[in-house]
Amino acid sequence: MQARRILAAMALLSGLITGVMAPGQTGKASPPTGTGPLTVLSWGGAYERAQQQALFAPFTAATGIPVAVERYDGGLAALRRAVAERDVPWDVLDMTRSEAMAACDAGLLEPLPDDLAAPAPDGTPARRDFIDGAFGDCSLTHSVFATVVAYRTDAFPGRRPTEIADLFDQRRFPGPRALQRTPSVNLEWALLSYGVPREELYRLLSTRRGLSLAFARLAGIEDLRWWEAGSTPVELLLDGEVTMASGYNGRFFDAMVNRDAPIAILWDGQVQEHEVWAMPRHARHAEAARRFIRFATASERQAVLTRFIPYGPSRRSAMEGVTTHAGSGIDMRLHLPTHPLNAAGAVTKDEAWYARTRERIGELFRATFGDADHTP
Q1: Distance set, CA 313 to CA 9, 66, 308, 346 (Å)
Q2: Which class does domain 146-273+346-369 fall in?
């Protein structure tokens, strides 16, 4: 196996609270005295563009509080340093739930108020409206995304990949592969390719045998390109440098619809994960951060976000508002990872398992496949 490192610039890390207008109101609320720009750490690319249109610009229009966005590619190193030095440049963090759980356990995040989320439009209490597991001590799930495999539709004449095991079958489906430089998802896919049932994945990964099997399967991929920035797998596919790549379903959708990319998504084996809002310790604009989280998790805002990128809302009431893509008119319900047709072979990521084992598994992964230029 020959791995080529992909270097990414890292910046590691409505019913609304008083002063934020409810849906249907007009005018602009005045920002609190002394409130500067709210700085949000997000993931860039198509995802950030969707957030700008559905969340950031509307929040500024409703409150008068400007939103500045900085780029994030995962990891906790920068957050640890910032909290230790009490010099935290961000107010709101857009994180995966597993990293938020680890950061919360390490004392890097602020606990969130129990009543932070607004009720549903019909008055249903928030905790009954959100999906299971949405409320963490320091985080609140705002959407469900999936890491999937996409492939070039012109790469395999006469056949198409239909199951996740095809990712590892370079005889029937030849060509270089691109995978994210992380144990997460790769380990699950490796075991699925052996026929391990989904409900047994994390039990087996908790054993030396399970990890050995997974690492061996990954090491057997010829011409494997590792990626770190979320935009990289799309570019590798478009440039023809790889025939199959892992990545986020929303980014692949954006390339297919807005760039007419000759790629398709393999939904089998998709690994679903919660994406959450969190607040770092010592955030400079804590009040504005809480106002933003309440605003961004309102049912209306979640539904509007799906008009720009196909991530599943975390509120049941928001699902009722999912309609079409703002640019193309495509029915977005069919492109959500949570749609029954797409979710038939899905794996729900065991984020508690990753939060508990991330250091040990990460060390083993780096020892086997090399390290990136940052420490998780």
Answers
A1: 29, 25, 12, 17
A2: alpha beta
